[in-house]
Amino acid sequence: MLEHTKKLPIELKFLGPSTNKTKAIKALKSFGFVNISDTVPWRDLFPEYADEELPGVCLAGSRHKENMTQKQLSELTGIPQSHISEMENGKRAIGKKTAKTLAKVLNINYRIFL
After folding, report:
1. 113 pLDDT above the threshold of 80
2. Which residue among 38, 67, 93, 112 is buried most deeply as judged by most CB within 10 Å?
């Protein structure tokens, strides 16, 4: 049986006339490509966080971005506030079902927590 494979992002590099650059960028954007030339890898910006800490850090950051307390998030998701605290502090894993519940309320993609 074939396994589902994760589609990895690709990087494209082209040479061509500079007069067509704007048209080429517009065409690529219509296919879902985004310009990442000015981005910095997150690991370079936050070397102090270990991989296992990231889901909790993302949860806390997403909650703060929405100006929400743990108690408010608890009320909106039905997840006990103590569990949210444990998830943010890396003491409780965030499963897929919980990630989807949190993401819906926090207006982000659930995969950030996995």
Report:
1. yes
2. 112
